Amino acid sequence: MKPKKRIGYIVKWIKQYATKSKISTLVVGVSGGIDSSVVSTLCAMTGLPTIVVSMPIYQVSAQKQLSKDHAAWLTQNYATVTHINLDLTPVFAAFEQKIGPVCSTDQGSSPQEQLAFANSRARLRMMSLYQIAQCNKGIVVGTGNRVEDFGVGFYTKYGDGGVDISPIGDCLKTDVWDMGREMGLLQEIIDAAPTDGLWNDRRTDEDQLGMTYPELELAMALDTMVWTEKLSKDQARNLQRYRKIRTANLHKMLPIPVCMIDNN
Asked: In this structure, what CATH number is given to the domain that contains residue 34?
């Protein structure tokens, strides 16, 4: 599907869902990344009241600026968009101070503890979005794409994975970039290296996953195909890497295990 047609299809889908569910407002967290920028623009294109929320937590300045720049672009181009800049750093700092002594194993420097705190940032943002949505008779609109949400599970459980609808959940990352170009989004956002923005440093998605999104997309395709040709060395390595990441994160994508009681 061509980007323009895909955009129109998704915008119509969001509007139909909102009408059927009697939704008044769409709420989207914006990070300055391509996914949230595309989703927030799709929401704005519906003509429905849309609240875009920037939620920096110890954010590097470049990421904060991209989020503000995109929000400014949206409010200039769409009259129904409202921007909220919600600095959550003080809230998260208080949480760190309170919970740190309870879970600390190595003065906060262990990789597992750092990852736990990174995930807590995403959960604090999710909670903030739901507070805003419920106060405005709205829903939280997800920004995850197919690669992250259904391929490698590259999201935080009950964090950015906690949403009401997922407009781009069936779109590959390259599809999202194509839609961003079609929409005329800021070039700085299109060119920016994808990042989840959950770390104090500038680590990218590629740094964490060890693969680019085009490599991930090819590995996803290979994983579901009956492949008769011999894979190249790089393809075989990437497929193995993809399967390893997917297996580790599969618990996020499957229903919660329930202990079913046999009363017989």
From this structure: 3.40.50.620
